[in-house]
Amino acid sequence: MVERINRMALGGLVGLAILAGGVPQAAVGDEQDAQAPRQRGGRRTADSSAFNSPLFWNAEQIMQSIVGQIARQYNLSEQQEQYTRLLMTQRVKRFLGEHEREVRSLMAEYWQYQFSGQLPPTSAVEEFGRRARPLLAAIHEEIVDGNMQWRDILDDTQRDLHDRDLQGIDEAFKRFDEQFERWSRGEVRPTDFPGRVGPEPRRVMNAEDAWQYYVRIFIQNYQLDAGQAEAARSVLREMRTEAAAYREARQNAFEALEADYAELAAAEPKRDPEALAAARDRRKDLDERRQSLEAPIAKHMFERLKRQLDMIPRADQRRAHNERQARLDRIAERTRSQVAARLAPTTQPATDTAPAPEVPETQAAVESPAPEQSAANPQE
């Protein structure tokens, strides 16, 4: 069910396509400039996930694949498939015009956490949750509006399937919104990153390895110019150097902690409930010890990093960012209310409570492409 929702009709798949728009050159440069997360001991993570990240996804290829999946899922006619492709292209391009860089960066960060084999540090989780929740709501609103526009071309059988998928999209949003709200309080769980089964529990990445993501999104949020962006990256380099010096000065303490983690990981799997509880307590003690040892980096240095970055934007850049964030917050509040209403127990069909797309009449010709448009020239 979840897999089908992730690749279903226009809306859910618009969400994926949104994350796959053309790569801005600046975004690629930022990623290449950033210092990639390293495993404990200083070794760079060695997998190819960085080059498969959302920073490098190609919109046209993914949208073509998505439309094909929609056509098969819903048994679309040729005319319906043509309409779906045109509508998706229009809506994705419009959404990307305002949100592409932030969406792409957040997804790349999430992708890295997923495939690094390490949990993000608490400080990074809090920042990610605060940034992701309102943007997730904006994506969801776009998804639902697109779906309600798209369903006009469906027949009764297709709409029955679509009703179920719409409910699945709402349920998925609710789960992710709750997860990111928990993250904003610094609560992350290994089960938040499924699919990476290994012989030992996920470790927590060094706090300073997640700073690159904060700096990159800061540059994008405030639309810093080249000089300002370089100043921000310079602050990042200086703070990372300071963090490295702190770790080197306490090398013995960090090595002892690593040895205790390795001993716990090498122990035989526990089956006895008491032994399992003891192992969990041991892991908790080690995590608390690590947090205490890294507190000057994760808390004090990170706060200094943020204060220095906050001095870089001009007043107009700060004002534009605040206005945009306020709009996202309003969308988030509206979206959560609408999802709660649609998911509440009711005897009415799901579509009765779904919001209609808010399309100005003057844009009707652009926002509602005619299903009978010619495939030879779909952009007319």
Mind explaining what this structure looks like?
- The chain is mainly alpha-helical and 380 residues long.
- The chain has one domain.
- The chain has 13 helices and two strands.
- The chain has a two-stranded parallel sheet.
- Helix 2 (10-18) crosses helix 6.
- The longest helix has 39 residues, at 78-116.
- The chain is globular, with a radius of gyration of 23 Å.
Count of alpha and pi helical runs: 13
As a whole number of angstroms, the C-alpha radius of gyration is: 23 Å
The amount of beta strand, in percent, is under 5%
Query: Considering DSSP H and I runs of 4 or more, what fraction of the residues is helical?
Result: 55-70%
The secondary-structure class comes to: mainly alpha
Question: Can you tell me the number of structural domains?
Answer: 1
Main β sheet profile: 2 strands, parallel
N-end to C-end Cα span: 36 Å
Shape: globular
Calculate the mean pLDDT score and round it: 77
Chart the SSEs and their pairings.
Layout lengths: L1 H5 L3 H9 L6 H9 L25 H16 L3 H39 L1 E2 L2 H29 L5 H29 L18 E2 L6 H11 L4 H24 L1 H16 L6 H38 L4 H29 L20 H4 L13
Parallel strand pairs: 1-2
Helix pairs in contact: 2-4, 2-5, 2-6, 4-5, 5-6, 5-8, 6-7, 6-12, 7-12, 8-9, 9-11, 10-11
